[in-house]
Amino acid sequence: MLLSMNMSLFFATNAFYNTTRDSVLGQLTTLSLNCGQVIFAYYSWLRGYEVFKLQVSSTMIKCLRGMLCFIPVVCLGPNIVLLLGLPIQTQVKWFLITGAICAGSTISTDFVFSYSYIRHIWKMRCQKMDVKQQYYVISVYGLSANVFAFLALLCFVVMQLNAPSATPTMKALVINCIATMLFSCFLAVSVTLLVVMKVALVRPSVLSGQRSNGSAVKRFLEVTSRDDGSRLIANP
């Protein structure tokens, strides 16, 4: 829900910013987008930790934990640059640098998450691995959400590279418009998949018609969320 509210804020502020070019709206747009990346990364960690623990080494788990502690600071970089009041050329330069670092951190975590999901799905299908069905649901929907989030990030890069200038060309405007539409669609699909994943975990009968032990699933979600969150700041 928090991610959905954050993305709604982004879409609203971005729409007004593209119309008015107000600097405050621009900062809110950047802040909401960066907060969305942080929320997405943390939610993926909390929900998929048990899968990651099965598929990657303890050293990689420690690296992921460190990156997740570092990501909030990195993702605020572009906003800090906008607030410093630097000369326009210097501001653009550092905005792009901090944005690239933020994107790189997000891509790195998404890559490890996706690798874990793919490895888990492959083992379940090809090696008949006997694990909780919840892990399979998390892997399938988590991987799908990561793919669309990655596509949205690529579209955002294209948007920034073709951002309208004082005298934009028609080609730049068309590319920016297409990239913006695709970015919005991919982002909406990614958030929707996370919502569907939660529904599939809590109420699988809604999607598949199968009955499940609702109390057991609820305990699974509560325990993993509590334990995985503590592992983010504690040693395994």
- Poorly predicted runs are 220-225, 227-231
Helix content: over 70%
Order of helices and strands: HHHHHHHHH
What is the percentage of strand-forming residues?
A: under 5%
What Rg, in angstroms, do the CA atoms define?
A: 19 Å
User: What spatial form do the alpha-carbon principal axes imply?
Assistant: globular
Mean pLDDT: 75
Distance between the ends: 29 Å
Structural class: mainly alpha
Q: What structural keywords apply?
A:
mainly alpha; 236 residues; 85% helix
TL;DR of this structure?
The protein is an all-alpha fold and about 240 residues long.
What does this structure look like?
- This protein has 236 residues and is mainly alpha-helical.
- Helix content is 85%, strand content 0%.
- α3 packs antiparallel against α5.
- The protein starts with a helix and ends in a 5-residue tail after the last helix.
- 28% of the residues are buried.
Layout of strands and helices, then pairs:
Blueprint (H helix, E strand, L loop, with lengths): L1 H19 L2 H33 L2 H18 L1 H7 L4 H39 L6 H29 L8 H33 L1 H5 L5 H18 L5
Helix pairs in contact: 1-2, 1-7, 2-3, 2-5, 2-6, 2-9, 3-5, 4-5, 5-6, 6-7
